[in-house]
Amino acid sequence: MEKSKKRHYAIINAVIVGFFGGILLAKLQLVFYYFNISKVNYEKILALFYIDGQWIEKWYGALLFIFIMGGLSILVAFVYYIICRRVKGWLMGALFGLALWVIFGSLIPTLLYEIKWTSFYKSNTNVLQVCAFLLYGIFIGYSISYNEELRLYEEENS
User: Fold this and answer.
1) pLDDT, tens only, 123-146
2) Distance of alpha carbon 33 from its chain centroid, rounded?
3) d(C-alpha 15, C-alpha 135), whole Å
4) Which letter, b or e, does each residue of 2-39 get, where b requires 16 or more Cβ atoms within 10 Å of its Cβ?
5) How far is CA 48 from the centre of its chain?
6) pTM
7) Cα 110–94–47 angle (5° rounding)?
8) How far is CA 109 from CA 17, 34, 106, 133, 140, in A?
């Protein structure tokens, strides 16, 4: 009974880490766009989900973007929990973030929407997006693997 309770705690912790990681990534994207560092704005990302309208340009459009990214990030963190939770260190998280950039930053927009993000935006936007996804992957990966290592340590010593 105690093992399943600790496993349940680890899954809930992965969900929390994923939600807050997505919120941090979304806020980072908004700050980058606000200071004209990146050309990727939240309106274009929401348009990929077929969410459009005049209301998107208001403050609650940005708030919707933040919560959608938090919700999607829960799924991403759960995938990381299933696949890579026992890998120690930050390197797997960085590779996971790089894989996420390949999937969500270039592959899906190119295949589904015929948007060539790598050629449409300046190179500093691409470098910034890669760095943001790397930081996001390191945050998700290191947090989840640390919690799993802590759970295993507590199981061995109890």
Assistant:
1) 677 788 889 999 999 999 999 999
2) 17
3) 18
4) eeeebeeebbebbbebbbbbbbbbbebbbebbeeeebb
5) 16
6) 0.86
7) 30
8) 26, 22, 6, 16, 23
